[in-house]
Amino acid sequence: MRKFFVTAALLLPLMYGSVQAQLPPVFDKQTAANATGTPTTRKYLPPVRIVWQEGNLQGVSGLMQPGNGQADLSNKNMCILKPAGNVKPAILLDFGRELHGGLQIVTGMWGGNKPVKLRIRFGESVSEAMSNIEPEKNATNDHAIRDMMVEVPWLGKLEVGNTGFRFVRIDVVEDVPEVMLKEVRAIFNFRDLPYLGSFNSSDTLLNKIWLTGAYTVHLNMQDYLWDGIKRDRLVWVGDMHPETSTISTLFGYNEVVPHSLDLVRDITPLSEWMNGISTYSMWWIIIHRDWYYHNGNLPYLRQQKAYLLPLLRRISQMIDENNSEKLDGTRFLDWPSSENPQGIHAGLQAMMVLSLQAGAELCKILQEPAAAQECEAAVARLKKHVPDHNNSKQAAALMALSGLASAKEMDDQVINVGGAKEFSTFYGYYMLQAKAKAGNYEGALDAIRTYWGGMLSIGATTFWEDFNLDWLNNAGRIDELVKPGQKDIHGDYGGYCYKGFRHSLCHGWASGPTPWLTEHVLGIQVKAPGCKVIKITPHLGDLTFAEGTFPTPYGILKVKHTKGKDGKIKSEINAPKGVTILR
């Protein structure tokens, strides 16, 4: 089978067109350590397109040439910005894809030998980069400064910014004769990791969706595992579950996961819920179970026991006399379901079942039979009370996955109604999982194409904090200036804490299709800790073939499935020594 490994540097041209020819020489790749001591890479990338310019500018095309980051005395090939009257020159640059990092500006020699003030605006969309800090469309500097005034030196270099962006607008703000820019390059900060997992099929859209989910999470693997590189640059444990599932699919083990799990554990007393949300403490348990199944690191799991056992006991005690959950703290599944208290109750009931089932598994592994029995007894009580989902796709998905309700009934009656309408970026992963449990694989593939493909259709290069299919109606693309009469899909939409431009367009919790396609289309399901046993049951749906790779602690598992004219699937499987394959 064709080998299909990529590195972070190679991923960009695979996804969005070749930029390799534009990359500078090797001395423009620098390595440093992040806050957890992990080496990170800085690449300097020239813009690929001039989106817009205003005023008197000369030589702007030179900015798209590779540079070396060095000012020099030749003063050749400069982009010259000349104020004229009340018109100050400005330019909007497109770096071709979402990036995490900042901006390097290399200047030339202008009259007066003085620094000059520029205004720099980073944006995940064209419209965000063109916006002002104001309440109408909620452009902010929350979590990361993306709109700033800077002084650039005469004949020198300045590096600014630490955010998520694709577009940068530069304005001259002073009455000066001219400003000369030799180079304006994005500083791309990332962990330069090989993509050990892969997915390729007869549907190029699904292939791109898989890679986009992978890249979205990869960008968020910074000091810790963040949920957003612009906002929020924080460790939210619930958000981590789709992300850690993606990381296991892509990389296998990576230390950013235990660093992040331990951080939240250590800052959260057992009398509190992680991030103030009861379900997030439950997701911490589920992540540890899944992480152990992928990596089989028993010494690390044992380190969690002192925190895990009291947490499980606390959750087990959150059941009333009617076998209903009585969770305190913030009652939350995801934002789109937050105004449906009945649906939240149903989801919380299911989350208690899922987390206590995971806890019972972990307790048996940790040789704590009494604690395992306590979890199982609590699950038995919880299953006696089956709440009404109140047409919440989020709740219906969790009820299906926990066994509180029939997966087929939940899919037929709730999740599949309207197709991908009312999906959410976070819980869409669990809606897909519930559809798989119901056997509706083709419906899941259609939902992936429609919902996540909808973001790609308007210029997304990473998946978003939230998305609603209704937003596509008469919407402008995020990589273009919004035309008169069009809706600004970034500035005009969003809710709750992410209204308008505060909305993150790179959120790791939206990466669910990446692990889902590997688990269900390639059919790779881990059945024993450390990937010692893997079951392979492909579900191609309307695909004619699907192939890919999957990292295990023993090496790379390779599979290829081809559908014959009779509809039967022929599989080629190459498993590393130490991994038992079940069919």
TrEMBL record:
Signal sequence interval, chain numbering: 1-21
Superkingdom of origin organism: Bacteria
Alphabetical UniProt keywords: Signal
Domain Alpha-L-rhamnosidase six-hairpin glycosidase: 196-389
Domain Alpha-L-rhamnosidase C-terminal: 523-580
Keyword match Signal: yes
InterPro entries: 6-hairpin_glycosidase_sf, 6hp_glycosidase-like_sf, Bac_rhamnosid6H, Bac_rhamnosid_C
Organism, as annotated: Chitinophaga defluvii
Coiled coil: none
Keyword Amino-acid biosynthesis applies: no
Protein name in UniProt: Alpha-L-rhamnosidase C-terminal domain-containing protein
Source species taxonomy: Bacteria, Pseudomonadati, Bacteroidota, Chitinophagia, Chitinophagales
Transmembrane segments: none
